[in-house]
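=== RUN LOG ===
request id: a7f3
mode: sequence -> structure
chains: 1
length: 147
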Amino acid sequence: MVVILLRDVKGLGRAGEVVKVNDGYARNFLFPKAMATPATDGNIKNVEQQKKILVEKRDKELASAEALAGKIGALSVKIMTKSGENGRLFGSITSKDIADALKAQHKIDIDKRKIVLESPIKNVGESSVEIKLYHEVTAVLKVVVEA
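=== RESULT ===
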């Protein structure tokens, strides 16, 4: 029996794929759990249409992420904090602090989990911070820490 997978099935395929399975497996496992549907002409057209919509949506998200990356690359964020001797900070600057400063100064809302810091910033000065906006799209933000 030929079926269209509605969800990813381990060992069988990914959602949207047309696969051939045993009749009993389809009737007793895949259909009752809504993991697959019979591969009729109408169902195949629906899946192709949904794939096309999904590709268009991903293209829009990619374009907006690239535009945002260009905008962020030209910006810098200034963070004021207390420091001790030799420019060493009391505490540190974390990804949450950078996200809050970016929102306050430039009105760009970025999730703190998208900001990549190997370790928190602990010194006064200028640092470059990477922000992952989409799968292949990253932006570099200049962070200036002042006492």
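=== NOTES ===
The longest strand covers residues 138-146.
The mean pLDDT is 92.
=== END ===
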